[in-house]
Amino acid sequence: MSYAFTDTHCHFDFPPFTGHEAESLTRAASAGVQRIIVPTVTADRFARVLRLAQDHAPLFAALGLHPLYIAQHHEPQLDQLATLLAERPRKLVAVGEIGLDLYMDNPQFERQQSVLQAQLKLAKQHDLPVILHSRRTHDQLAAALRRMQLPRRGVVHGFAGSLSQAQAFIRLGYYIGVGGTITYERAQKTRGVMAQLPLEALLLETDAPDMPLAGYQGQPNRPERAAEVFQTLCELRPEPADEIAAHLQRNTQALFAMPD
């Protein structure tokens, strides 16, 4: 049986997709991946991602400033984000990728928190969900979200924390992004978490071209491999595949309200 999927996190504005968009979308569609959300990482990618969404029916845009690029994020970039969110392009569905990261060298964590806070305020002001990055910062991120009380909530993408950390985000109304980590046998903690969380809390993603699946190490990840993440999720969970697929699509639409 074939299913319809949404890759809720794919950096389609980077190689190997650049210059091969139509071919890449055809490959994704052949695997059932009918829609792809493309989050930005820096302000200089905003125009490109909006243009991709405008030019290709399966693509939808999220605009945000990623914590890994904190050195590039200043007031002008936040102003640029605010202006574009106010314009509300039709296929803009979220603020992202935003968040916190303590895994990187020289994290400038106070600045990260300040930039995150500014973007959460913008998401609240414009009634948009958020796509969240978090590495070694789940507790700090949950605290920031608790304080901000976003009406539309969001997703903690590529989640690899503990069950209790996932449950803390879910209690706040946030979704958990299921990615290629679960395809690795050694990732027992993450596999166990994704097996136990309520289906109502899960979204499907690849983080392509990053986070290659097991068996594809050293190759760029691709959106069509969301179908393989789904297959692994089905192996880990007790529910039938059609029920899992239906929940994933329903959750995606509930969070992102993607226009037809």
TrEMBL record:
Binding site for a divalent metal cation 1: 9, 11, 97, 207
GO MF annotations, alphabetized: hydrolase activity, acting on ester bonds; metal ion binding
InterPro entries: DNase_TatD-rel_CS, Metal_Hydrolase, TatD-like
GO-annotated cellular components: cytosol
Keywords, ordered alphabetically: Hydrolase, Metal-binding
Keyword Hydrolase: yes
Binding site for a divalent metal cation 2: 133, 157
Listed CDD domains: TatD_DNAse
Protein transport found in the keyword field: no
Pfam families linked to this entry: TatD_DNase
PANTHER family (UniProt xref): D-AMINOACYL-TRNA DEACYLASE (PTHR46124), HYDROLASE (PTHR46124:SF3)
Similarity comment text for this entry: Belongs to the metallo-dependent hydrolases superfamily. TatD-type hydrolase family.
Protein's recorded name: TatD family hydrolase
Biological classification of the source: Bacteria, Pseudomonadati, Pseudomonadota, Gammaproteobacteria, Enterobacterales
